[in-house]
Design goal:
By secondary structure, the chain is mostly helical. It has a domain at about 5-120: Orthogonal Bundle (Arc Repressor Mutant, subunit A), CATH 1.10.10. About 45% of the residues lie in helices and about 10% in strands. The protein has 7 helices and 3 strands; from the N terminus they run ααβααββααα. It has helices at about 5, 10-20, 25-35, 40-50, 80-85, 90-115, 135-155, and strands at about 25, 55-65, 65-75. It is globular.
């Protein structure tokens, strides 16, 4: 299966979001992280991600007489190359966006289903902003956001830290150039 098709699926996206820290994980640990997804579905989707090269087997351990496999994310393969993106049709982009939103909705519902969920105390945010940007300003803005994220992306888990999911969506809402006084 092509990487495009692997990534354009909401459950597979949620699995990848759940293991972005790069630490080895077992499918039973993944079931704990994604309790709203059936075990059979997780096993099937993990197998597809392994076959597609996005996950690799890290190790095996004997647990109560059974062999438990631990997997690790392949970060170098966990993105779509510009060539793959340019080969996507508009319908591929629609499916990709729908998969990303479905994954996000699944993550948010899982958060809200927790007994300790407190959106106000947890600083939960879902906002949209309209920004008028030239191409130069847009590239600078993207660079600023990426810089801010990368500065924190290597934070290791600790008792003082809670894992958060940040999703960015950026696209033009109008076509063509707008000039002063145009409608």
């Amino acid at each position: 299966m092509e990487i495009t098709q692997l990534l354009l699926h909401p459950v597979r996206l949620r699995i990848l979001h759940a293991v972005l820290d790069g630490a080895p994980f077992s499918t039973s640990q993944l079931c704990e992280r994604l309790p709203d997804v059936s075990t059979a579905t997780l096993y099937r989707q993990v197998a597809l991600l392994v076959d597609g090269g996005l996950l690799e087997m890290d190790s095996e351990k004997s647990v109560r007489g059974a062999v438990e496999r631990f997997y690790r994310l392949q970060p170098a393969k966990n993105f779509m190359a510009p060539e793959a993106i340019s080969a996507m049709t508009k319908d591929d982009h629609r499916r990709g966006f729908a998969a990303a939103i479905a994954a996000l909705v699944g993550e948010f519902n899982a958060y809200l289903d927790r007994d300790d969920a407190n959106p106000l105390a947890d600083s939960v945010s879902y906002r949209q902003f309209a920004l008028w940007l030239s191409d130069e300003e847009k590239h600078a803005f993207i660079g600023d956001v990426v810089f801010a994220i990368r500065a924190r992306a290597s934070n290791a888990p600790s008792p003082a830290r809670t894992r958060h999911l940040l999703s960015t969506i950026l696209f033009p809402t109008e076509s063509g150039q707008q000039t002063e006084g145009s409608s």
